[in-house]
Amino acid sequence: MSAKQILLDRLIALQNEDAEHDPVVSLDEYFYKNDDEWSIAPNNWGDGRPSIKDIYARFKKIESRPDVQGVYVGLHGDWMESQDDEESWPSAENIHVISSASQFAVEGWVEGMEADSVGADGWPYGKHKLAPEPALDYYLYTVYWD
Fold first, then answer.
1. How many domains does the chain have?
2. Fewest C-beta atoms under 10 Å: which of 26, 77, 84, 134?
C-alpha cells in the first residue's frame, strides 16, 4: 500500500469519527513520501516558500525541541479530492505547533518559510474530536499560509 493510500485511509477514519471538523494528522503521517509541492501553501510555492522536503525538515526540528509537545498538520476541506487524482497529495491548510514557548518564539522558528502568520486562537475551524489537547502550560499555535 502506498504512503498516500495509508494517509487517505487515516483521513477517512478521522472523517468518520468527526465529519464536522477537518482532520488533523501527525507531521510524519502527512509528510512521509509527500513530494507534491502543491499540497501545502501552493500560492507561495516558487515565490519564496521552501520545498516540501525543507518544510518537513524544519518542522521535524521544531518537533524535537524539549518545549514542544507535538506538531500536527491540519487538512484543507478539499483533501478528499485527492482520492480521485493519482498525482495530488491531500491538501493541507496549516500546521499546528503545541508548545510552552511564546508566540514570538514560534514565529522565529518558522521564519523563512514564507508563512503569513502564526496564530494563537485555538483550532481555526473548530477542534476535531481526536485532535490532541495541549498539556498544562502548553499552547496551540497555528502556522498559516495564504
1. 1
2. 84
